Amino acid sequence: IIHRRDEFRASKIMQKRVLDNPKIEVLFNSVVTEAFGNEKGNLGGLRLKNTVTGEESSIDVSGLFFAIGHDPATKFLDGQLELDSEGYIVTANESTATSVEGVFAAGDVQDKKWRRAITAAGTGCMAALEVEHFLTAHQEEPSPTPHSPPLMHQQHLPNCPGDGPSHCQHCHELRLRLERLY
């Protein structure tokens, strides 16, 4: 693992797993400056630069996986919602509610600890339930006499493609669909 800082920011248990694993070598304070091939045309190695000393070195590798951090895409919300120093949306404890009433956040823009698809899905579900509760608590009373469009009372709908009995069936099905909207 090539890491640009002098320590990991992951959870202590994950750090311990990596550092205690004899199959994993960690190079702290280092960045990859170049990947180069071997005589077969495959990846053969990496050029590294130490971020503290500036010293350059090379290592042989046959594979490379990039994990270069995560910046939440929340810059457009700056000044509108409370964001922490790293740009994550601040939510209430054990909630997805933000600093603005009626605005909820979920997923990687709000979860800087776990950042996993399963936890994003979980907070998405939480947010959906909280939105439902919020809307229920803030809904307006329904109007006492729902209205229907004028064409609902016509015997046949305009531009009906059917003839004879199918004409009436088509109009009936359209009326049923329209009634659900009003």
From TrEMBL:
<protein>
    <submittedName>
        <fullName>NADPH dependent thioredoxin reductase</fullName>
    </submittedName>
</protein>
<dbReference type="InterPro" id="IPR036188">
    <property type="entry name" value="FAD/NAD-bd_sf"/>
</dbReference>
<dbReference type="Pfam" id="PF07992">
    <property type="entry name" value="Pyr_redox_2"/>
</dbReference>
<feature type="domain" description="FAD/NAD(P)-binding">
    <location>
        <begin position="1"/>
        <end position="124"/>
    </location>
</feature>
<dbReference type="GO" id="GO:0097237">
    <property type="term" value="P:cellular response to toxic substance"/>
</dbReference>
<keyword id="KW-0560">Oxidoreductase</keyword>
<dbReference type="InterPro" id="IPR023753">
    <property type="entry name" value="FAD/NAD-binding_dom"/>
</dbReference>
<comment type="similarity">
    <text>Belongs to the class-II pyridine nucleotide-disulfide oxidoreductase family.</text>
</comment>
<keyword id="KW-0285">Flavoprotein</keyword>
<dbReference type="InterPro" id="IPR050097">
    <property type="entry name" value="Ferredoxin-NADP_redctase_2"/>
</dbReference>
<dbReference type="GO" id="GO:0016491">
    <property type="term" value="F:oxidoreductase activity"/>
</dbReference>
